[in-house]
Amino acid sequence: MELMWRTSHVSGGNAHYVEALYEQYLVDPNAVPDEWRNYFDKLPRPEGSPSRDIPLSPIRDQFYQLGQSRRSAQGVATSDSSESKKQVKVLQLINAYRFRGHQKADIDPLDLRKPVPIPDLDLSFHQLSKADMDTEFQTGSFFLGKDKAPLKEIVDALEQTYCRSIGCEFMHIVDTEEKRWLQQRFESVRSKPKFSDEVRKHVLERLTAAEGLESYLASKYPGTKRFGLEGGETFIPMMDEIIQRVGGYGSKEVVIGMAHRGRLNLLVNILGKSPSELIEEFDGKKVIEKGSGDVKYHQGFSSNVMTAGGEVHLALAFNPSHLEIVSPVVEGSVRARQDRRDDAEGDKVLPINIHGDAAFAGQGVVMETFQMSQTRGFKTGGTLHIVINNQVGFTTSHPQDTRSTEYCTDIAKMVQAPIFHVNGDDADAVLHATQVAVDYRQQFHKDVVIDLVCYRRRGHNEADEPSGTQPMMYQKIKAHKSSRELYAARLVEDGVLSADQAKDLIEKYREDLLAGNHVANALVKEPNKELFVDWSAYLGHEWTGDADTTMDMKRMQQLAARMCEIPDGIQVQRQVAKIYEDRRKMHAGGMALNWGFAETLAYATLLEQGHPIRLIGQDSGRGTFSHRHAVVHNQKDGTTYVPLEHIGDGQPRFTIHDSFLSEEAVLAFEYGYATTMPNALVIWEAQFGDFFNGAQMVVDQFISSGESKWGRLCGLTLLLPHGYEGQGPEHSSARLERFLQLCAEHNMQVCVPTTPAQIYHLLRRQVIRPIRKPLVVMSPKSLLRHKEATSTLEELAHGRFNMVLADVGKLDAEKVKRVVLCAGKVYYDLAAYRSENEREDTAIVRIEQLYPFPKEELYEVLKGYTNLEQLVWCQEEPLNQGAWYQSQHHMRVVADMLENGLGRELKFAGRPASAAPAAGYMSVHVEQQRQLVDDAFNA
């Protein structure tokens, strides 16, 4: 990088020329050529900026000094006794335009926006009048290129800057440096930079492509759903500019999330999907051989494009018809890519989330996604948000019915994101807003929003007739020229090209479409595969429930010792110190192993074997039930120490964070992360198992069906505390029945481990096998410290995960006449009852994996009981919940395989059917628990 600066055009004999150009740029950015303006726009900000990996050359320091001296010369006029009151009022007027000019801006291409009274922008409000228009006033911090100017000139400049095709909202930002940066970018060019003819021709070509694809599909497939982009075509040149510009910054990957509006257009004209492939999909071609598949406007795609800064990989996330839920999925995928590149600042990978206006305002997950944007566990260096604002919502809604705020984008103010409302019919304004948005994100690493105010020429889909509910709007739309027509006419009027040349672009694009040629003009035909996420090692494997999770005993004990090491100087809280002291005894063989030890050791061994680990939950550092304490808090100064980060030199990343109070966005984020980091163990832990209810959409639309719909593999693990301890309806059940209902085609695993050894091997199996399937774990609460729920070092070193655990009691198999099948914590209640009542005729068998159901393993256990007469399934959950209804047919099949065929004799022991998951009164809970255990042995 330093060599580039030493040998570039800004060094040596060119330095004085460049300095002069820069001084001219500071006075009037439009006075320098496009390429120099873009270059100067991107210069890192001066002192106070975050450290960046770009060495500063002497000439760059000179630029900063020039800029600072220029701003100093334009310093805000002070209001002392020698100044008139009117000078103060002029400065207040300037500030009013910065605050409220957006409300007067011409941002609606249909001119349907009702004007609102804005007294702040009237001269009289500030005790000024037309008589003052020729009087010169200090301009203060307003970027006018001179210190003083007539009031008329100041007002004209303010109107041009803040009340034309871009409505800027940034005065809600508290950081003065950010506000001044944004003021300079808009005020210096009056929000209308002068683009070169070549740039404007390129914009027209991209507009022609956007309109051309929609016209072609409309004529070839009339009435077929495609969720077209008509009315919002400037979205395509916007995306083209974003990708090219971030590529110029050195970014290597862009991940995009969007719902279906305009998706096909983006796929073909930006990502480079072959038009012929799209046509085949319209004609019914299958995209994936196995599974259900999905409609074409939900499909993802990836490709590489060439930019001025090199090759950039583009990834469009797969998306269901649940609108904004893809937003946090994109953030998770981006964070995984950044972690893979050690890109802590977010310079190399950019997230872009594209929204609809009604969804942006109405879907709560948008707020959750904004909330995670600057948190340690989830930040991605700023997201570029684009709202394709068709002003009518998803079907026929009036804005008054879709939100309570003035703009659909007002929610973005919660994180002080700047918002640029831009008229979708003014392509030059769209280009300028796009450039500023990209530069802001790269400069400050924060979220920014572009509100592309446009319209929808057709209905919600192409079979919908919108005039039935929106007659006035669609009268205007029918008479309204397209964005391409308007822009082409403007370029012809400006002498940039002729009308025939503009028409030739249409013909050329249609010829390429008909020929099946790629129409994304920067597409790399032979992409650099190093930019891709490599899933090849995990493809094509059939399901297997086994894996070699053993480990050399000596090595395992060394790792156990290391995960218990806490450096001198860290004062550990008393109860936590006891946990670590007990763990030291466990790895030395002096105590039986508990759950926290086994789970933590599983992480240590996986790290030692080269697998990154990411563990996220609302209380994951210590564990909701204080069993983990993977993060140790120094009682002296509040600093933290994570022993698992110090397992060995060169170990992979271990990430553990307590998340903010969200389930939906966080689980979606972790899904996105897991689909992009195949060799990692990625875990989301619910504080209580039923909290996943807040993220049910993620489970339904991604975790359970992503592979079937899109062929998308994912090894995400869910730890859901589950078990009936009398804590009431909301903290007992992780809704096991819902997960089992979603199980089919080996789409995921549902397990209920009951010993430390089982969780140890289960977590290791999840990563060591080359299979990537979501894993849902009904994890325990009371078993974390249950005196019987222990394991040995030998079971960890030499064992494996057993999908079925045979009875460990000292029973004579020939005397056993009843087998109680169960899963989870109830086993220990059953074992206690049997011991107390000396029931040697009953065996207790644990099914530790409920899906895929281990039929062969269960049969091998049951066939040893040759005199078996009764089979009972016992569960803590009510009859209509838990595993009974979704698993009994599997058990009956196994029972019928026995010599005496007991399938029909399978009985149920559990709580009666109930609307709520559990009783809210301890006395009721205790009686129900006593009864179901008694039923298991005696009913």
TrEMBL record:
Pfam family, any one: E1_dh
Record keywords: Glycolysis, Oxidoreductase, Thiamine pyrophosphate
Cellular component annotations (GO), alphabetically ordered: cytosol; oxoglutarate dehydrogenase complex
Residue ranges of every copy of the Transketolase-like pyrimidine-binding domain listed in the record: 593-786
Highest taxon of the lineage: Bacteria
SMART domains: Transket_pyr
InterPro entries on file: 2-oxogl_dehyd_N (IPR032106), 2oxoglutarate_DH_E1 (IPR011603), DH_E1 (IPR001017), KGD_C_sf (IPR042179), ODO-1/KGD_C (IPR031717), THDP-binding (IPR029061), Transketolase-like_Pyr-bd (IPR005475)
Coiled-coil residue windows: none
Biological process according to GO: glycolytic process; tricarboxylic acid cycle
A GO MF label: oxoglutarate dehydrogenase (succinyl-transferring) activity
Catalytic activity: N(6)-[(R)-lipoyl]-L-lysyl-[protein] + 2-oxoglutarate + H(+) = N(6)-[(R)-S(8)-succinyldihydrolipoyl]-L-lysyl-[protein] + CO2
Class of enzymatic activity (EC top level): oxidoreductase
Cofactor(s) required for function per UniProt: thiamine diphosphate
Assigned EC number: 1.2.4.2
Chain's role: E1 component of the 2-oxoglutarate dehydrogenase (OGDH) complex which catalyzes the decarboxylation of 2-oxoglutarate, the first step in the conversion of 2-oxoglutarate to succinyl-CoA and CO(2).
Similarity comment: family membership: Belongs to the alpha-ketoglutarate dehydrogenase family.
Subunit text: Homodimer. Part of the 2-oxoglutarate dehydrogenase (OGDH) complex composed of E1 (2-oxoglutarate dehydrogenase), E2 (dihydrolipoamide succinyltransferase) and E3 (dihydrolipoamide dehydrogenase); the complex contains multiple copies of the three enzymatic components (E1, E2 and E3).
PANTHER family, per the entry: 2-OXOADIPATE DEHYDROGENASE COMPLEX COMPONENT E1, 2-OXOGLUTARATE DEHYDROGENASE
Name by which UniProt lists this protein: 2-oxoglutarate dehydrogenase E1 component
Species of origin: Modicisalibacter muralis
